[in-house]
């Protein structure tokens, strides 16, 4: 009688512990990502946006600044072609970033976007961005990386400057096993 | 140790005598017992908030401990006090749940207001990107070409107690962040490797610098001056050795400083074309080595076994020049601790430090590297 | 059931007796307390003066990391589990723990876990050096190779804690003597019941976060690396989701001990028993929703900052209720001040001071100035040293006569108390000042204006360390012999543990006691 009572509670508590472990590893990360996307936490800007035609708000001008930096020992030269553009909410704008691989080996880079102020993140839509893909550059190769975006007309009144940052990571080692797959993928993206 | 006691008594004496207000102020300043009032509006509001909460806590503490000490004094067995037997009172318990809640609400109001002030996103006059590196800061003035690293300038000999320490020991840098006063400055904060935190107490700005992401903060400094801070997030070995110095100057001085930076950039480009003698490079190289390399590879070039490789007798410093250039300019591909110095140092400094490393610590390569070699190496790659 | 312990070493290796296992836990944690304490003294010795004198920064970081890990997981938590093992069955009238074999196991994996952790000190690249909070990527991409051993040892410690917690819950829910209803249980049992649930809820999260680190380091995932679409800030959220409740795991059982000691020496029943239970439950619940107050400077939307600020401030309400209840218990009592009572009173005062600084830290805009400074170090040491360590010490003095049958030396106990009390305040109070004046935490060397207070703190630390040697001596002497203690030990203490002889026989309550 007592034995089975103890066994029952042990099994229940072990199940609780196991479910907390599953929660930590498999639920918290996606939950956090979803949370980031809703709140703009860490300036995460969400995925590809399908543009819906919206009225352009000529009365407001938003300055969008671009900054680019390399993480750690990433040797590529990486910079925006212009430092900032002024846009009206609702209007699509284009810009280009330059990337150059000065080393003697083929490498793969991944640009991670981040945007401040956080509260603007959900109103900043990228319809085209090199950050969606891993970028392969052969030794000495150069590339122009395109970005097209729209600032949502619903953006809060007190936001007038948005800074979009890209940090370029060297992911050559991380994904060298799948290099062929990525090559074809980025070729397709062209 | 004796000196410490002397000062302790000086402080006690000073705070006991109510008349010597001046002495007390001096003592407090030397001892630094409280948060600085700061030189920005946000810093001052924060300071006031801090003091408000502090005094509320003091009052509650005096009341609660007062009751406790009273009963410890009066209600003791040795005085023959007979214990009462009450052990419950819903009314009393309700009161001391509700009153603290009310006090908390009263605290929350100014705290919320201050937080909204800090989260202001109005347009700034100047944007500065701050990047934390192991173990230094990089400042980019967005919208201009000005970009530089700011390293600890306290010599190793002071840290190792071989020399008396400067008044600003560990709080001094080779190149401070120069900003104009009475302008809204927006900081964009990120990191290159691990998480750092940029903190200047007088500005009440502390924000984590996170690799891959940017954070923002802002300040408007009211008074010119030099404000010092430190990295506030454990970031590895030299976390304690990456100070921040902000020099706030009037607008005209700031303008002059900007012009000076442009002029020195031009001069640097000229120097890159110049040919230096071995001795010139060696002397400059030692300086660069001390500030940029010695933290890991150690002043004697012997490194730390198992953590940081030695320069003395190393394969790279006594091997082919190109491998050495590659290591210094592009960093190590296997060990993230060895950074790419190609963008951090000028061509002159890279040439000097490589020359130094190949000819110091018993390395006898005998070769010199000129700034133009560095430039060629960078372009040829 | 009448047979006694096995002879020799086998007694300890194979034992399933709750008292033996309690003793093992307590001695183990005492040993870890001295090990972690020595590391603290290395830290304080280095910080005695500006400049690097004794250790290099790499080793300093290893010391701060190991000090934290060993004190949290090696000293405080096992000590509370040891007290639970000894006292919970005796307090609820049970013959033993519900799962005695698992009890043996949950203790005996601990020494291996800590041996693995300590062995990292001798590995190439040194021990973990990323702080006990091991923030990624410092603890992943930039970590020394020993991090893998650190991860496995955390897994072992976590497994031990979870097993211990399951055992405690099963014991409390299934093994109570007839008539011992939940609301009649001593508060130590109550606080441990709630703590055990917290342990089961959050220790797996710790296991999860180190597992994610392991996968990032060795199996190419990128939970915490931005390069692969992860986020280092996620690490902090998961860690503090464990870490904040962990803080309460280290303090709730202390509330139980203090709630046992104060009434005994005030000769007056505990004031507000049921509100104590509810307050404990409220604190435990709130502890699960305040984690991000450790991360105010990480960059959060203002709504997040406000939510975590308000929730954190709320914790001071139930905590305040507890303090008020203890003071009311003392009020109009008939007090005497034996060593356990002295430690308990010091607990109330100093823990309240830690609570005040905690309230200050909860205020998000002010926290921007306090965060990661010595003010924080002062705060959590005020909560943990007088909170956890003093309450454990008080509990040991209180129950030692029951365990050994001998009275400890009262004079030596008082000497221990006053040395510890003065040492503690001398060590940690000046840290408030240097923190406010701008000294960041976890730095091996500091600017000159912090020198005087650091010197004071270092002297206090050595005094505090010396006090613990007195404690060790007193405990050993009491175990060896001394004045015989009566069955009740103290004047009319409440609880079933005082109805059995002193020393408590190897088997107690083989037949359940009759409750009045």
UniProtKB/TrEMBL annotation, chain A:
Pfam families: CtaG_Cox11. It is a single-pass type II membrane protein. It comes from the Bacteria. The keyword Transmembrane applies. Its main location: membrane. InterPro entries: CtaG/Cox11_dom_sf (IPR023471), Cyt_c_oxidase_assmbl_CtaG (IPR007533). Belongs to the COX11/CtaG family. This is Cytochrome c oxidase assembly protein CtaG. It comes from Microbulbifer echini.
Automatic annotation (TrEMBL), chain B:
Residues 280-361 form the Cytochrome c domain. It is a multi-pass membrane protein. Keywords: Copper, Electron transport, Heme, Iron, Membrane, Metal-binding, Respiratory chain, Signal, Translocase, Transmembrane, Transmembrane helix, Transport. Its cofactor is Cu cation. The keyword Coiled coil does not apply. Its EC number is 7.1.1.9. It catalyses: 4 Fe(II)-[cytochrome c] + O2 + 8 H(+)(in) = 4 Fe(III)-[cytochrome c] + 2 H2O + 4 H(+)(out). InterPro entries: CcO_II, CcO_II-like_C, Copper_CuA, Cupredoxin, Cyt_c-like_dom, Cyt_c-like_dom_sf, Cyt_c_oxidase_su2, Cyt_c_oxidase_su2_TM_dom. Residues 1-23 form the signal peptide. It comes from the Bacteria. Residues 123-260 form the Cytochrome oxidase subunit II copper A binding domain. SUPFAM superfamilies: Cupredoxins, Cytochrome c, Cytochrome c oxidase subunit II-like, transmembrane region. PROSITE patterns: COX2, COX2_CUA, COX2_TM, CYTC. It holds the Pfam family Cytochrome_CBB3. The keyword Iron applies. It is found in: Cell membrane; Membrane. Residues 27-122 form the Cytochrome oxidase subunit II transmembrane region profile domain. Binds a copper A center. The chain crosses the membrane at residues 47-70, 91-109. Belongs to the cytochrome c oxidase subunit 2 family. PANTHER family: CYTOCHROME C OXIDASE SUBUNIT 2 (PTHR22888:SF9), CYTOCHROME C OXIDASE, SUBUNIT II (PTHR22888). Subunits I and II form the functional core of the enzyme complex. Electrons originating in cytochrome c are transferred via heme a and Cu(A) to the binuclear center formed by heme a3 and Cu(B). This is Cytochrome c oxidase subunit 2. The lineage of its organism: Bacteria, Pseudomonadati, Pseudomonadota, Gammaproteobacteria, Cellvibrionales.
């Amino acid at each position: 009688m007592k034995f089975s009572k103890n066994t029952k509670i042990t099994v229940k508590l072990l199940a609780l512990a196991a479910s907390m472990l599953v929660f930590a590893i498999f639920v918290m990360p996606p939950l956090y990502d979803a949370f980031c996307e809703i709140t703009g936490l860490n300036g995460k800007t969400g995925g590809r946006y399908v543009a819906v035609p919206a009225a352009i708000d000529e009365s407001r001008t938003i300055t969008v600044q671009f900054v680019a930096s390399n993480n750690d020992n990433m040797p590529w030269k990486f910079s925006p072609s212009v430092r900032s553009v002024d846009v009206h909410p609702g209007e699509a704008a284009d810009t280009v970033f330059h990337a150059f691989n000065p080393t003697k080996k083929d490498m793969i880079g991944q640009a991670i976007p981040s945007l401040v102020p956080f509260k603007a993140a959900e109103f900043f839509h990228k319809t085209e961005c090199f950050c969606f893909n891993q970028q392969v550059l052969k030794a000495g190769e150069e590339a122009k990386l395109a970005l097209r975006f729209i600032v949502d007309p619903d953006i809060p009144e007190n936001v007038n400057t948005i800074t979009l940052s890209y940090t370029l990571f060297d992911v050559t080692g991380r994904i060298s096993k799948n290099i062929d797959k990525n090559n074809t993928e980025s070729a397709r993206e062209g | 140790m004796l000196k410490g006691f002397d000062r302790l008594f000086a402080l006690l004496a000073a705070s006991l005598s109510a008349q010597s207000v001046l002495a007390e102020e001096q003592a407090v300043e030397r001892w630094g017992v409280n948060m600085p009032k700061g030189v920005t509006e946000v810093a001052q509001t924060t300071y006031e908030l801090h003091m408000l909460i502090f005094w509320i806590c003091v009052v509650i503490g005096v009341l609660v401990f007062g009751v406790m000490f009273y009963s410890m004094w009066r209600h003791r067995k040795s005085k023959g006090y007979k214990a009462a037997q009450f052990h419950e009172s819903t009314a009393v318990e309700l009161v001391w749940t509700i009153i603290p809640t009310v006090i908390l609400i009263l605290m929350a109001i100014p705290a919320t207001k201050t937080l909204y002030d800090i989260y202001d996103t109005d347009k700034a006059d100047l944007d500065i990107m701050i990047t934390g590196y192991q173990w230094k800061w990089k400042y980019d003035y967005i919208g201009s070409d000005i970009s530089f690293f700011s390293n600890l300038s306290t010599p190793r000999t002071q840290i190792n107690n071989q020399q008396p320490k400067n008044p600003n020991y560990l709080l001094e840098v080779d190149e401070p962040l120069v900003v104009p006063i009475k302008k809204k400055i927006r900081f964009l904060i990120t990191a290159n490797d691990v998480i750092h935190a940029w903190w200047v107490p007088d500005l009440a700005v502390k924000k984590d610098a996170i690799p891959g992401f940017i954070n923002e903060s802002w300040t408007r400094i009211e008074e010119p001056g030099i404000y010092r801070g430190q990295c506030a997030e454990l970031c590895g070995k030299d976390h304690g050795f990456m100070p921040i110095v902000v020099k706030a100057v009037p607008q005209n001085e700031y303008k002059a400083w900007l012009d000076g930076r442009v002029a020195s950039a031009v001069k640097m480009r000229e120097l890159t074309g110049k040919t230096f003698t071995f001795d010139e490079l060696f002397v400059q190289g030692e300086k660069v080595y001390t500030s940029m390399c010695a933290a890991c590879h150690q002043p004697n070039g012997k490194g730390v076994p198992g953590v940081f490789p030695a320069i003395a007798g190393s394969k790279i410093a006594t091997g082919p020049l190109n491998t050495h250039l590659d290591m210094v300019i592009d960093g190590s591909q296997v060990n993230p601790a060895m950074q790419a110095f190609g963008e951090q140092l000028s061509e002159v400094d890279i040439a000097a430090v490589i020359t130094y490393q190949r000819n110091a610590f018993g390395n006898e390569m005998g070769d010199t590297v000129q700034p133009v070699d560095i430039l060629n190496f960078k372009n040829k790659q | 059931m009448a047979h006694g312990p096995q002879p020799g070493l086998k007694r300890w290796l194979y034992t399933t007796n709750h008292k033996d296992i309690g003793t093992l836990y307590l001695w183990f944690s005492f040993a870890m307390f001295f090990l972690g304490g020595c590391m603290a003294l290395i830290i304080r010795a280095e910080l005695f003066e500006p400049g690097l004198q004794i250790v290099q920064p790499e080793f300093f970081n290893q010391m701060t990391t190991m000090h934290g890990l060993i004190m949290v997981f090696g000293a405080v938590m096992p000590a509370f589990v040891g007290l639970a093992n000894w006292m919970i069955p005796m307090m609820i009238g049970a013959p033993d723990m519900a799962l005695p074999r698992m009890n043996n196991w949950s203790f005996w994996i601990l020494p291996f876990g800590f041996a693995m952790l300590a062995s990292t000190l001798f590995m190439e690249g040194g021990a973990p050096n990323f702080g006990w909070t091991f923030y990624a990527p410092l603890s992943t991409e930039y970590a020394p190779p020993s991090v893998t051993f650190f991860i496995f040892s955390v897994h072992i410690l976590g497994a031990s804690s979870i097993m211990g917690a399951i055992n405690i819950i099963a014991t409390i829910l299934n093994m109570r003597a007839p008539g011992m209803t939940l609301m009649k249980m001593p508060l130590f049992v109550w606080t441990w019941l709630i703590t055990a649930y917290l342990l089961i809820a959050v220790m797996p999260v710790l296991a999860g976060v180190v597992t994610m680190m392991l996968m990032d380091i060795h199996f190419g995932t990128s939970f915490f690396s931005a390069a692969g679409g992860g986020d280092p800030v996620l690490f902090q959220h998961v860690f503090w989701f464990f870490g904040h409740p962990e803080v309460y795991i280290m303090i709730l059982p202390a509330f139980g001990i203090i709630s046992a000691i104060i009434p005994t020496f005030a000769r007056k029943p505990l004031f507000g028993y049921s509100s104590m239970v509810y307050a404990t439950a409220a604190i435990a619940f709130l502890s699960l929703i305040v984690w991000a107050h450790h991360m105010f400077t990480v960059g959060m939307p203002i709504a997040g900052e406000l939510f975590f600020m308000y929730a954190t401030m709320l914790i001071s309400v139930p905590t305040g209720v507890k303090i008020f209840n203890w003071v009311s218990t003392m009020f109009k009592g008939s007090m005497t001040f034996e060593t356990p009572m002295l430690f308990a009173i010091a607990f109330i005062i100093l823990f309240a001071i830690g609570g005040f600084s905690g309230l200050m830290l909860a205020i998000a805009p002010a926290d921007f100035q306090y965060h990661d400074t010595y003010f924080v170090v002062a705060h959590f040491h005020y909560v943990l040293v007088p909170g956890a360590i003093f309450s454990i010490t008080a509990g040991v003095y209180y129950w030692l006569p029951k365990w050994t049958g001998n009275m400890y030396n009262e004079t030596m106990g008082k000497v221990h108390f006053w040395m510890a009390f003065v040492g503690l305040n001398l060590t940690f109070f000046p840290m408030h000042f240097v923190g406010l004046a701008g000294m960041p935490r976890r730095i091996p060397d500091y600017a000159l204006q912090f020198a005087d207070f650091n010197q004071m703190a270092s002297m206090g630390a050595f005094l505090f360390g010396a006090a613990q040697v007195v404690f060790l001596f007193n405990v050993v002497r009491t175990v060896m012999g001394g004045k015989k203690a009566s069955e009740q030990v103290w004047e009319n203490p409440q609880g079933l543990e005082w109805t059995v002889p002193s020393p408590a026989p190897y088997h107690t309550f083989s037949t359940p006691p009759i409750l009045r």
